[in-house]
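User
Please review the sequence:
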Amino acid sequence: MNTERLQRILQKLKEKNLSQMIISDPLAIYYLTGRLIDPGERLLALYISQSGNNRIFINNLFTVPEDLGVEKVRFSDTDDSIALLAEALTPGEALGIDKIFPARFLLPLMERASASSYVLSSVCVDEVRACKDEEEKEKMRASSRVNDAAMARFREMVHEGVTEKDVAAHMLEIYQELGAEAYSFPPLVGFGPNAANGHHEPDDTVLKDGDCVLIDVGCKREGYCSDMTRTFFFRKVRDPKHKEIYEIVRKAVETAESMLKPGVPLCDVDAAARKVIEDAGYGPNFTHRLGHFIGLEDHEYGDVSLANHNVAQVGNVFSIEPGIYIEGEVGVRIEDLVMITEDGCEILNSYPKELSIIE
């Protein structure tokens, strides 16, 4: 058990007047124990409490290290696992529950009146995970270094006659050659008008001269995700307006990144990038938030949007990804991952953002 991370979560619970919590999210359990378990339909629950009576409830089916840093309560498919869980709780006190704890377990637990009340408290875990520790920071850097190297390889696959599917088909192999274990999300490859579709899936569209080439990709390395988007043009820029759009998006990225430091409201970061695009006359064509938090998952709790008035904190890692999308014509998005440092931010992607034409 990672005691430092556990103590940070317990402090968050204390601030909400909670003495105990059940964590069922496998990635949150991995975050604390270093062991990833996919329980399927079976109960998996990590019980934590201010009293230190921490236990993990785990089916006999699953193999875990002998010393997991927390007491293990084992059960079989024929045991009453809810009864075992109920016995561990402190009666008469509120119980924190995470957002993915299945109703098939929660409702029987509630019927036993095992706690005075049940409180959704995922935020106590999510806010801690949003501030990466030193080990996580290095893993995020390493994952983005692989993504930078991969983007250079992906660019080389863009040539006359290629389809979006052709490019996407070889991406996982390249990632694995570079030391990653998997995608962090399915790759997005869009040529020409397809790039204006924010989440276009690669299809049989054949590349044409003058097409923009939008590549939005990420990988997992040691469990941590990367995410980056670059937009290229094939052989030429078909319309001077497309070059103008590209430079507006690049200015929006650089404007947002230049203001990042601890204490900056995330809504102000979104507003600054959005203003660049709005002032150029393309406000309605920027159709999504500026960024999302990232770590063990590609999209984690927290975002960079007009609705989020929280401030940037040291250890936050999130995307900055403005875009302009002209339906049926062109789409440009440029995305970096950034990490908030003590005095500013570290841009995790070094792959160039200048307009690039693939010959």
